[in-house]
Amino acid sequence: MRRLKFLFLSVVLCLILSVGAERGLCVRAEGGDYYVGGMTAGFLLSAGGVEIIELNEVQTEGGTCSPAKDAGLRAGDRIVRVDGREIRSIRALNEALGAAGENEITLSVLRGAEQLTISLCPVKDRRNGDYKIGILIRDTLSGIGTVTCIERESGKFAALGHSITDEARHPLEISDPKVYLCSVIGVNRGMRGKAGELKGLLLNDKPFACAEAVLSTGLYGTIDRGFDCSKLELVDIAPLSEASIGKAVIYSTVDGTEPQQYEIAIAKVDSGNRDNKNFVIKVTDERLIDQTGGIVQGMSGSPILQNGKLIGAVTHVFLNDPTRGYGIGIEKMLP
After folding, report:
1. Is residue 285 among the annotated active site residues?
2. Which of 22, 93, 111, 188 is at a distance of 20 to 30 A from 75, taking alpha carbons?
3. Domain range list for the chain
4. Is 236 annotated in the active site?
5. What would the pLDDT profile of 256-291 be if each residue is shown by its tens digit?
6. Model's pTM, two decimal places?
7. Tens-digit pLDDT profile for residues 251-263
8. Which one of the listed residues 162, 166, 252, 302 is annotated catalytic?
9. 285 phi and psi, to 5 degrees?
């Protein structure tokens, strides 16, 4: 739900901290303690090092070469240390290369779940005098997920319903606390054996919240002042003991910026599941099936309501049937 592959991005512990109501404009109203989310949120993640996007050539006084390619580095590798020094940004890597000059350096590299040690010598770029190894890199990744709920008194929000990891299941951290509104501009439909995904555009001029924590149950933070909650539905929450097999609804955004309500069926309730897979759900709404094929990455955090109460959030999709997936109980997402 990661243009990284999260549906397990699927983004948010409502940390009820003593921040005071002046932090936001979520005005008190009758009807419940939590605003229902369903809107997509965009955020920036630390790559957990410097990720190689592409190998390239360096122009030196003696011709062109690529130390990285010659040493066996690949696109997708993450450089996490240089000569034992932790590397978490492009700036830190450039400083390490500059300090080494043309002397041999040792890189600690993550390639999926494997950790490698690779030695090479930087070369001097004749155009600007910088020392390089022939790589195009990034240190941040963009992701989208769905906001589950906002606590009306504190303005605290919860999203995603699961941890944020890369494809090798390494946990990722927020690199920028700003959380942005996101417009869904397309969908890669889910199909048997392959999860679909929402394609979103971060509205960088519209940060609406500040992220404060990434936990195993999602992304958490506080809504910014000025964000208007008045159009959102206010509901109470219900524990897993009140959930039952049968009809329910989810709120998701699969086009544009406005959440829509879709019908689902709860096929199983498992309050004791330690992997936070407390519900098995099935999408029954033909509108959603026509648009997405069912549950796709980016819908993680979509709130689940039954009998007018918030009971949980969508977290995972079944790869063998995209109309089916898992959900987490809302009581596990809240303190």
Report:
1. yes
2. 188
3. 21-46+144-333, 57-133
4. no
5. 999 999 999 999 999 989 888 999 999 999 999 999
6. 0.76
7. 999 999 999 999 9
8. 162
9. -80, 115
